[in-house]
Amino acid sequence: MTGADPTTAFGVYVHWPFCLSKCPYCDFNSHVRHAPIDEERFVRAFAREIETTAARSRGSEVSSIFLGGGTPSLMQPQTVGAVLDAIGKHWSVADDVEVTLEANPTSVEATRFRGYRTAGVNRVSLGVQALDDSSLKALGRLHTAREALDAVAIARSVFDRYSFDLIYARPDQTPAMWTEELQRAISEAAEHLSLYQLTIEEGTPFFGLHAAGKLKTPDEAIARALYDVTQEICARHGLPAYEISNHARPGAECRHNLVYWRGQQYAGIGPGAHGRLDIDGGRHAIATEKRPEAWLMRVEAMGNGTVTDDLLNSEERADEFLLMGLRLREGIDPQRYAALSGRFLDPRRIAILREEGAIAISPDGRLRVTQDGFPVLDAVVADLAA
Ligand SMILES: C[S@@+](CC[C@H](N)C(=O)[O-])C[C@H]1O[C@@H](n2cnc3c(N)ncnc32)[C@H](O)[C@@H]1O
Ligand code: SF4
What we know:
Shape: globular
Order of helices and strands: EHEHEHHEHHEHEHHEEHEEEHEHHHEEH
Helix content: 40-55%
Structural class: alpha/beta
Number of helices: 15
Oligomer: single chain
Bound molecules: S-adenosylmethionine, iron/sulfur cluster
């Protein structure tokens, strides 16, 4: 797998916490405001937090930037430009930096794509979610399938790199329906696709409906069949999974997301952003205030929105390495786990999981989860970490 050198990769995540409406399945830190957002005030606060965070991670060169949300495509292009300028002012940035912006695929937002490219964005990730209007309506989306595909076409004409997201294992979805939809999606895709199984998140409207029996998601057997169809079709079309939900042509993986899964460092900027920074030899898990206006006031008063800054102990660090690394098709280096935790993974547990076909050891000694193991990834990780 290519991408920035995994030993030096350093990402900056910037969170834009606003959406036009809240989708009923979503538990991301996103908020709807009926008054206009004061983008200039946010820019000043982002720049301030970038400055204080960069001061704690000197010597790192930024290899990827990700503007996520919420809906970052609601930001004016000059707001995006100002955030990128602030990052360039306070960090050294690699010449080939990957700069991704998450966009909702409405016609209004697609008109801003050129402006984003001028501002320095070189990759977009669009939340298409489904390719038929009744599913989009059921997901509470504000766009039609036609509008989404038009936005994909605009992304293709403006950016060399783009990806889009689909949600599958939706209510009443059969493997035959998903096969057709996925094939259609692949014909519109270029180098990268994110394919997420619908998760019912606590606290969302879908959670209440599901609990009341009013929203039925596919049972385990159908979910497994949908997953298998996904792997088979994507691999056949040259878009194998490089992570449990992410597919790319070899070399076109999202470098920023690889930073998370490979346990590298990243700074989290904006409301509710998370970071992992190595400071004075220790790995810090940092999180900022989630509520946008409270985050603003905190940054204005103190220079950053940090609410938790925990030094991870060796066990926490090793568990995180395992949890994140095993999501990747490339798996993990067990020696690195041992170096972090001070102990080797239990050879008996490894042997049992191998026998069950849930994990495999590559010729170079890396430990990875197999296609049969991915649907039960959480159990595999729990077993190995025990
Ligand atoms: C931060 S979100 C959104 C990006 C953008 N706001 C949008 O909705 O188009 C990133 C992706 O997570 C996925 N996602 C969010 N909630 C999900 C859920 N409950 N189950 C599965 N996928 C989900 C969606 O595919 C979404 O595009
Ligand atoms: S899925 Fe995207 S648009 Fe919908 S609420 Fe979540 S972040 Fe906002």
